[in-house]
Amino acid sequence: MKFAMEESELAGLAKMSMQEIDASKATKDDIDVRLKWLGLFHRRKHQYGRFMMRLKLPNGVTTSQQTRYLASVIKGYGKEGCADVTTRQNWQIRGVQLPDVPEILQGLADVGLTSLQSGMDNVRNPVGNPLAGIDPHEIVDTRPYTNLLSQLITANGQGNPAFTNLPRKWNVAVVGSHDLFEHPHINDLAYMPAMKNGRFGFNLLVGGFFSPKRCEEAVPLDAWVPGDDVTASCKAVLEAYRDLGTRGNRQKTRMMWLIDELGIEGFRSEVEKRMPQQLLERSSPEDLVQKNWERRDYLGVHPQKQAGLCFVGLHVPVGRVQAEDMFELARLADVYGSGELRLTVEQNIILSQPTPSMKGLVACTGSQFCGQAIIETKARALKVTEEVEKRVAVGRPVRMHWTGCPNTCGQVQVADIGFMGCMTRDSDGKIVEGVDVYLGGRIGSDSHLGELYKKGVPCKDLVPVVVDILINHFGAVPREMEEDDDIVTEHDHYKKD
Predict the structure, then answer these.
(1) Which own/partner contact pairs does 376-379 have at CB distance under 8 Å and 24+ positions apart?
(2) How does 28-46 read in b/e, with b if 16+ C-beta sit within 10 Å?
């Protein structure tokens, strides 16, 4: 069976009526079987001609823009359309009709979403701590790991045939909380944070699953991997399961059945053979998850790890939302939060407050849409701020304003730090987009206009300039970072409380 359809195939199928599709066994199989690899599930019995679409959403992180797009899709289907928060930190939308699918898939791509490889014998959504990055008690930020796992599994959203034909579906979780919000023990593979000889990494649990005939908790593999080997170890486990797993009675094809057949040491040996160095360290006794931890309730208002900020846990009864609910969730995320929503495996949603530097960020229209603007502002303001936040922790709100030209629609003179667009020369003498930097603007009863601090800074060289300003004028603290294989981990994330 082919993995997935080419665009031309899907477009052709979308033009056929349901009567034409059902008249041919081949096309009937297409919509009832093959489309599942694209994350489309025909609800033949209860919603004939309509589909459920399942997204990929590593760590349950989504944006207000993505949420609005999904809301706009289901709104078009009236009472037939709705969405669910799933038990794998994911969105599913319902009521989708086949003629609309090519346009919907393009819309998903435009907002950075995909439904690829979310069904059938594929890897389900990688789950992690829903409070990653904002949890005052977190062990490690799970988002970099779940993102890398998702990229591995789907080849960065392009489709990865290596993992599209497993013996059965397969689940993975990365734990970053003492509360085990990630439900690791019911996953086929779970990463449990642990130190070993001064190095941070994970002990591995394997084999957890539910089925009508059998339910099992995951068991220790007696293996520890450093943080840098999360994707390599996931790939090795998947390949062992793919190559050796039983392909017969579908009630006996989950990975635990293979573990039973080989024994835990036999299975471990097969995984070890598939590791890059054909080596797998034994597990570490230095677990970072506190065993006597009393599980917290994330619903309601709670302090974030960022001083002065809070996150809000929202209860979503049974995880079901309508289009208007989703629009309102997106609005709340923008008005009161960071524009981000976190889905949980218990079908709820968490809104986090913006960081001190993000919450005070202002930008004019910029050259994308304004003929007066000298430089692009909005996307650049976000990118520069995100890069700065990777380098320093800001303990109090800092108002940063961007304006594309001297008309100063972005009001840079009243900002703590202001950036006014200009053309300047870089270190090679080339004319490039830049900014004049203003500093010291104040609002309120002691209002004061900011003054020119530095003239003609190339935009590409701006991040270290802003970092220095935040450290020297606003008390920001440099972050100690490790960067390796695109994983960025803060040292203090995995220290014991």
Answers:
(1) 376/404, 376/433, 377/402, 377/403, 377/404, 377/410, 377/421, 378/402
(2) eebbeebbbbbbbbbeeee
Q: 329 - beta bridge partners?
A: none
> What is the spatial distance between Cα 457 and Cα 465, in angstroms, rounded to a whole number?
9
pTM (predicted TM-score): 0.77
404 flagged as catalytic: yes
Tokens of 348: 């709820």
The DSSP element (H or E) to which 302 belongs, if any, is strand 300-303
361 phi, psi to nearest 5 deg: -85, 130
Residue appearing with tokens 């730090």: 417
Please say if 94 is a catalytic residue.
no
Three-state SS for 406? coil
Task: Please pick, among 39, 176, 404, 421, the residue that the annotation labels catalytic.
Answer: 404
Could you read off the pLDDT of 2-39 as tens digits, one per residue?
445 556 688 888 888 888 888 887 777 788 888 998 99
The tokens of 24 are what?
Answer: 């041919």
* Residue 353: strand, helix, or coil: coil
Which candidate in 82, 234, 405, 409 is catalytic?
Answer: 409
* Token output for 7: 């665009």
Let me know if 54 is a catalytic residue. yes
Q: Can 300 be counted among the known catalytic residues?
A: no
pLDDT over 70 percentage in the chain: 94
